[in-house]
């Protein structure tokens, strides 16, 4: 099946032959027959295995073809289908293809046995045969949701798989309007299901790169034509008018080609970013930005798109370099203790030494088989390598082979120096550990494990060493070889082991997809879940506050010491085998099956992500002096942070989601309100902050709370349609009635004389303190979620579900309406100097505006909608709260194109300078931008 034209996909749904693939248990065949008949009556086509597999056709292949061609994968849930191996195989294939899943419940099952991909969705109930027609209508309604998006996904998947099956033949790539349609679909569908698959994204990116190359060749041809035209103008004035017309036409084509290349590079950058390839996205974005800088005639919407896309990669990129030079997988990587070198061990039989800027300084040759581990001595005078050739070799850092340690009977998988450098421990596949003196003499052989020794690690205090084994255990030993403790708990081989810097905690990585944290006495402290495949490596940061783990899911996960997930480092295309922190903790090196080493920076100079909340963060607020940042979450907690991101305290007291918080003018008090219908008042005193008072406030949830400028009154907005004013002792001053629906926000004017409230009734109301309604502002077409006074009190900004921000005078005059968000606008905030307006949206972006409506920048890169905003008092930082459970601090200094280009060039300097695979064009990309520290 092929697609003639993708650009008309939404308009021509008849081109798809299959709409619904049905996966079911044979026990439910009669029901499925009835369902197919009902769907056919609704003009829906289905794929079922009793009628769609031709005789003698390869059965499994036909099943897979049916899933690929279908818009929706419908799974009939029953005890038999959940237990069925074949249904499970079909479901996994649909998940792999990012198909839209549609679960329907035929017979009740234990929810705990259902695949998470189905369990997390809404099930359509088909248990009651008497309500069959009603259930079918519900199914049809669900099938029609985002139908154009789903059908486009199917068409693109078919074409991408055809390209893949034809060995990625360039003749199958997208061009022209087809390519533009795909890029637009990817860009507009970031918050829709199904998401693009990897092969779809690679297909689009490869197509764009090919199209960009073609356009570049065309641009060069046009430039040659322009040169000929110029010569013609000199030679013949008599042909001037004709030549000038040709010149204008050629110049217009040149500009169109440049603009096309800018758009192409920007779309490619956006696609790479969406696919978690931020480093490559940065390179493509930098190319687009450099072209845009020369194209002063580019339209505003193109400039805005480039700034948004390039900016997101500049802010969010963490990969700083990639070391490419090995011809096989890289298993382990190690920083020298002085932080000046990096060593890597590879399946190509080499140990390579690298400078931190990415230059390969030397390759250590001598092993006759794969090198599986590498370790520096503490004094950096020696390097040890372990190999499948059954030897350990000791080297000088200049590549001189000092000696070869022989005696192992099988592959040597691990090697480590003791902290004092006097002992070398090596572990082999037959479970044996050998301890050697530095001069190569064997001290001790330990029959340690019943399975391969995969990793060895000495405690930093030198009192213990640990071994991790395929026998599912970690063992702790004295340096003399005496066994201290066996740590049992993993349900599969243990791949790696690491000590915390204080030697008190042991981390182990397992093929069972977990990282486990242990005390020295064998007590299991915590199990870290999150990886979806085997975990092959684990290590602590030098300060002991971060744990990094690498997995066969191609991800590096960073965890806080308490087990909270900080985030992922994404970019490897295969297993992450090894991880190492630099001695200063500012860099992470990862070794991968994809034959590369990646270097990642712990850089927080532009963006700082605060992780700790367990649910959506709904509100964030800087204290008046800027020394404390408070965040409130649906997990029922308030967290207090230092401006640099360190957690000060967690405040507990609410029994449900917290929707709003606000500091008193002097920052001594904090007020909060939420779904438990109470208002709580907190005393701010750092780690000793405490609850002062709590009172029931409304008959429905409290959406918004705000202090008056004199700090003596609290205003609250509620789902009970009212605004209430309170004294600090919790006594009610008065209730403001007038809104016809939920009130979502309330705030005082800077002079404290007025109160503004925003409601689901689509209006803003302006009140006097005595409760007198002054006026009602109408103009939004949907719920108003947020409002803010300008610092001078002369303007009100409002944020609405109609996707706009509006700016009003106090007399109700609408001054401006800002458009650009593609989702609900949840919040709006003025900077303290009044020169910038920030808006937060469900479209996963924050936009910064000038008061006249000019868009300054779009801050993107969130994985969930953005809800709350707060400018720091100095205006240099913007804090945001979002659905992805994070607080993000943005440094607002580098938002213009030139500053972003400088930042991008600085970040890429080492890679562009030293990587052997960089093209000459890219090598010169930043020649006019001098790197700076």
List the defining traits of the structure above.
transmembrane helix; disordered N terminus; transmembrane; repeat; alpha+beta; TIR domain-containing protein; Methylamine Dehydrogenase, Chain H; 4-stranded antiparallel β-sheet; 933 residues
Characterize the structure shown.
- Keywords: Membrane, Repeat, Transmembrane, Transmembrane helix, WD repeat.
- This is TIR domain-containing protein.
- It comes from Stenomitos frigidus ULC18.
- Residues 16-147 form the TIR domain.
- This protein is an alpha+beta fold.
- Among the domains are: 6-172, 3-Layer(aba) Sandwich (Rossmann fold), CATH 3.40.50; 177-318; 321-602, YVTN repeat-like/Quinoprotein amine dehydrogenase (Methylamine Dehydrogenase, Chain H, 7 Propeller).
- 24% of the residues lie in helices and 36% in strands.
- The chain contains 15 helices and 61 strands.
- The strands form 15 sheets. The protein has a five-stranded parallel β-sheet with strand order 2-1-3-4-5, with helices on both faces.
- A hairpin with a 5-residue loop joins strand 47 (743-748) and strand 48.
- The longest helix is centred in the first third of the chain and has 38 residues, at 198-235.
